[in-house]
Amino acid sequence: MHIAFVMNAAHGGRGGMEQVLQTISRELRARGHVCTLHAILPFCHHEFTLSFSDTYISMAVPRLLRRSSRWRPRALYRHFARQATVDILSHLAQRPPDIIMWVDLDSHSLRAADLLARFRHQCPHTRLIAYPHNRIETTLQRHPSLARQFLQTVDAALAISSGTAAALRQIAPPDFPVITIYNPIPTASPVPRPESETRFVYIGRMDKNKRIIELLTVLSRLRGRWRCDFIGSATTRTYQSRIEETIQRYGLQHHVRLHGWQQDPWSTLSCASVTLLHSRSEGLPLVLMESIMRGIPCVAADCPTGPADIIQDGQNGWLYPLNAEHQLAQILQEIIDGTRPLPASETVRATAERFETDTIITRLTDTWEHMRYSSTPPRKLIPCFVYISTHKKELLRAPFMLPVCCACRRPWATVG
Fold first, then answer.
1. Contact in structure between 258 and 156 (CB atoms under 8 Å)
2. Which of the residues 42, 119, 131, 284 could staple to 101 if both were Cys, CB 3.0 to 4.6 A apart?
3. Which is more confidently placed, 370 or 275?
4. What is the largest CA-CA distance in the chain?
5. Which burial class, exposed, middle or buried, applies to 2 when counting CB atoms under 10 A from its CB (0-12, 13-18, 19+)?
6. Architecture of 198-355 per CATH?
């Protein structure tokens, strides 16, 4: 079976999503499948592309427009990004895969629904699946019409968390299949815990969404013997400077250590007590899953979406309400004082069994095989009209091709 992963937005190459795609591709290729990667923009770090059988990167977007900034002309970027999507779909149409996994579900992807509909008319045997890894609630709320039309174009959606699945079901047609399949994580050996002090760890990108400055503010209130290791790099030099200034302002030099980005972050740690995550939003935080696989309990904000699917209070960590930083400080201080005992490493690791790679890959392949050989109603394309700009509320008469049932002329995805 040939599975094509399409990345229709900018990605650096070192994020959690890229690690997940690496794992999936390696496991599928080991089982005899072909996995290809297609992207509209080059990657800053392209090492993860080596895990795929083949990689195709469009060069339609000019170099000056590839980097996101407040000065980039939005309309001009959208034009070239759309051309890049056309380029990718044309390349896929030359040798149609069995399955296309559409990784991104941002506004640009939603506006490409007409292109996907034309591709499906050209390659009717290819199954198209939405596979969003980012938080999609805001995008769906801002562009409900575009989202509905996009979901009517694809065969199904795979959600990586229950929160993502709920958001998709709220806006999808009644009979649209939304299947929750968590991200896979490889098995790993347990990480020992320190005896003389409490050692917190943060692993991941450092930016405003991760709220590193706010986390450092909480850590400044703690008393006792503790340390915190930050493994990851800031997205901008300005934010890196703010982090360093915050450490200096609160006098955390002896408690906090910045390791920067590491190829293998877990090998950097000799021991760990608790993993911290203070994000404003997530998809399905891979670091929490990797932590419990290593027997490390987690303390995380109950943000949308993901942490609630992973953390079971008292079994593998604790959740606290979003923005309740006083409650986070209380939990961490109780851990330092020993009044909140940590669950045993074996207990924590047992909660990670449902995320094991073999289990997730088997569910993925079974889902694909079922969709690949399932019967679908006949479809053809008819012109309709869509909202181009939901902010200005202007209805532009733009021809848009939408798949419908030949018998009842309802959108194909809503036909029972």
1. no
2. 131
3. 275
4. 72
5. middle
6. 3-Layer(aba) Sandwich (3.40)
Q: Is the pTM of this model over 0.85?
A: no
Contact by Cβ (8 Å): 8, 106? yes
2-184+359-414, CATH topology level: Rossmann fold (3.40.50)
Report residue 35's pLDDT band, with 50, 70 and 90 as the boundaries: very high
Length, in residues, of the chain:
416
The span from the CA of 345 to the CA of 57, in Å, is 43
Confidence at 406, pLDDT banded by 50, 70, 90: very low
Amino acid (one-letter) located at 403: P
Residues of the chain with CATH 3.40.50.2000: 2-184+359-414, 198-355
Token couple for 381: 């394309």
Q: What share of the chain is helix, strand, coil (3-state, %, to 5)?
A: 40, 20, 40
Between CA 42 and CA 103 the distance in angstroms is 16
Range 29-36 contact pairs with CB under 8 angstroms and sequence separation of 24 or more: 29/53, 31/361, 31/365, 33/1, 33/2, 33/3, 33/365, 34/1, 34/2, 34/3, 34/97, 35/3, 35/4, 35/5, 36/2, 36/3, 36/4, 36/5, 36/97
Q: Crossing angle of helices 144-153/162-171, nearest 10°?
A: 100
d(CA 303, CA 295): 22
DSSP H or E stretch at residue 292: helix 286-293
